[in-house]
Specification:
With about 180 residues, the chain is an alpha+beta fold. The chain contains 10 helices and 6 strands. It has a 3-stranded antiparallel sheet with strand order 1-3-2. A 3-stranded antiparallel sheet has the order 4-6-5, sandwiched between helices. Strand 5 and strand 6 (about 165-170) form a beta hairpin. The longest helix is centred in the middle third of the chain and has 14 residues, at about 85-100. The radius of gyration is 24 Å and the shape is elongated. It starts with 20 loop residues before the first helix and ends with a helix.
């Protein structure tokens, strides 16, 4: 039933542009520090440009090495495209500090579902002395064959550093490894 003289006013929905990462954080500069262990200082110097380029150019995050405090410092810029970019960059640098290759660690920047998990052999089974050394040797295998087999089967990367084991991969693949 129509009523004469009644007009239907269609209200137009407002069209808002998406907020930038800088606006989401209220214009605040976000900051992260990653400490550099003594044994990773020289590899960091050698691979600095390989680390610097993807962080500064692709992720639009400022990076610098504070030599005095031995920290890598990361800061967001005005044109940082994503809020999570800073945390991804911090995870990338941290993965390099744990001993992963730059090529493997760059995957953390490009894929969202990758993680680094770390544990000690003692967390799995209490071993001491020679038994612990034998367990580490079995994990790496002769010439690293066992390590490479586990990496290739589970699509992960594994770093064995003394009694600590670091695994880079997706959540399901880390569980399998």
């Amino acid at each position: 039933m129509e009523v004469e003289g009644a007009e239907t006013n269609a209200v137009a929905k407002p069209n808002f542009k998406p907020l930038t990462a800088h606006e989401i954080s209220d214009g605040q500069v976000q900051f992260r520090k990653i400490s550099v262990p003594k044994h990773r200082y020289t590899p960091l110097k050698k691979a600095w440009m390989d680390i610097y380029a993807p962080i500064y150019d692709q992720m639009k995050v400022d990076i610098r090495m504070n030599v005095k405090t031995r920290n890598v410092e990361l800061m967001t810029r005005r044109n940082t495209p994503d809020v999570s970019s800073l945390q991804k960059c911090a995870d990338f640098v941290h993965a390099f500090m744990l001993g992963f290759d730059v090529i493997d660690a760059v995957a953390l920047l490009r894929m969202d579902e990758l993680y680094v998990d770390s544990f000690e052999i003692k967390d799995v089974k209490t071993l001491k002395g020679e038994h612990l050394s034998r367990a580490i040797g079995r994990l790496s295998g002769k010439g690293g064959k066992t390590n490479f087999a586990i990496e290739n089967l589970t699509k992960t990367r594994i770093v064995i550093a003394d009694t600590k084991i670091h695994i880079l991969g997706s959540f399901a693949n880390i569980k399998v490894a």
